[in-house]
Amino acid sequence: MASGSWEEFFAVHLPPPDFEDNRSLLKEFCERHDQYGNKIVLVTSGGTTVPLEHNTVRFVDNFSAGTRGSSSAEYFLEQGYAVIFMHRLKSLEPFTRHFTGQKLLDMLEIQDRGPNTTISVKPDSVDVLAPILLRYKAAHAAGAILHVSFTSVSEYFWLLRAACECLANVGARAMLYLAAAVSDFYIPKDRVPTHKIQSASGAPIIQLHLVPKMLAPLVNLWVPEAYVVSFKLETDESLLIPKARAALEKYKHKMVVANLLQTRHHRVILVSPDITQEIVLTREEVHAGVDIESSLVSEIVRLHALHMCARGERVSPP
Ligand code: PMT
Which residue in 99, 203, 215, 293 could disulfide with 251, CB within 3.0 to 4.6 Å? Predict the structure, then answer.
């Protein structure tokens, strides 16, 4: 079934309640960094949901823990970028991603002395915590990162378009790094029931419709000067590169980072009109906890610099 147009999608799906607040934050952030000639990257991260009910009890989800996006955001900060981190609520975030589950609590010790109780970091955890905490504090003190969050695919698109409207003025210094896992299917708003679907009525038949691909207006209309990197996730190796190439040809953006679900944390393939380049972590690097995003982001930053030069843009060093 053909998808409706992107204009139709925005006409039918109303903006989320906190949209105007987020739009103001995005505008202020982009204007502030643009004024200093900074490079700004929009990193999208995590999966979008498609609600099956307006009062949502059930939803269809796209798989993504947010590892790629949250880790990449840290490396972009290190490279001197201002980062808009647009993420799925409750998915991994930069810096705190290192302390999921019980890790942070395990690093602390407590002297239980009633009203004089003290809590401190265990001596052998200081080396782990200190460098991350220092980078976190520095990024926030410099106002170098802005967090905005989404849950559903329509919230994602409203935020994406608002961010693009602000980034349009930044021209070639803007980068879009679209690592979020975005739904290809949804249920049009007028077909979504208000209340929880009742099992007493029998098994529901739910027809999903195609979501319009937002990369098309994004590249051509919203941020025509920006360096746009999209991601391609597949589970079948034989489809990966052909689909990445097809996306580049169709949307005419700068790069597709192709990855397989099974190997995404130690292998990515950068596909651009001129080159196909693989980044693979060795077994030792995987064991040492090296992030593949470190090399991935370095290479993309290098290519972004060439893009800026080609457009006569001068950049302030990191
Ligand atoms: O978070 P992790 O667990 O670390 O996993 C990272 C990742 C595997 C999710 C990430 O590396 C990744 O591949 N993200 C993109 C997944 C995805 O949505 O691929 P896709 O083939 O469905 O979409 C391709 C591109 O089209 C995406 O950049 C997306 O922004 C764009 N798109 C998708 C749907 C849509 N309606 N409009 C779009 O523009």
Answer: 215
